[in-house]
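Board work, copied verbatim: Cytidylate kinase
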Amino acid sequence: MKKVYNIAIDGPAGAGKSTIARSVAEKLNFVYVDTGAMYRAMALHFLRNGIPADDEVAISKSAGEVNVTITYENGMQQVILNGENVSGLIRTGEVSAMASAASVYMSVRNKLVELQKNLALKENVIMDGRDIGTCVLPEADLKIYLTASSLVRAKRRYEELRAKGEECSLNDIEKDIIERDYRDMNRENSPLKQAEDAVLVDSSSMTVPQVVDRILALFQERKTEGGSLWK
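↓ predict structure ↓
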């Protein structure tokens, strides 16, 4: 049976995890599992059904009716919610807020983690999220904790929104990021934290290619160390 490799990337919102993970996956020919997109898809389902973020009973019941899968078409990730391609509908602020709020409920997390674990058993994968290295893939061959200052993350988001022609406030964006960090780090179930064996990568003053090269170098180092995980 061939060796299957898993890379976990955790970190706060806006640290660039998805961008980095996609690039690393492409260079290593790994499957990129966008866990955030899976949570967003489920959040979209809750919003469509008018379920409040604080109604745990309704969310738990509705979660059981949701099927979220990730496929690839022409190298592009497609997020499928109950048979519908929702890739273009899950990147709004409203969906993001609901995903963060709903992710604290075990019914939501258990459903998606099971799928994520199953994928990692069969394929070379790279996953990014809040608790990949600590909960979803605790035996991952390489764990990265990717972060950046709240101001840097806010500026990145600000520039993205302005490029789309959207009016926004840098101060408001940073405030939202700080509040989201607090929620993610202090939630009862699987809070955001750096795994003990994760490598800290602060991208505040790094370009995307520099971060990608750093992770690729770490992967190659681990792969040639000869430890039990690499035999």
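Strands lie at 6-10, 31-34, 68-73, 76-81, 84-85, 125-129, 142-147, 199-202.
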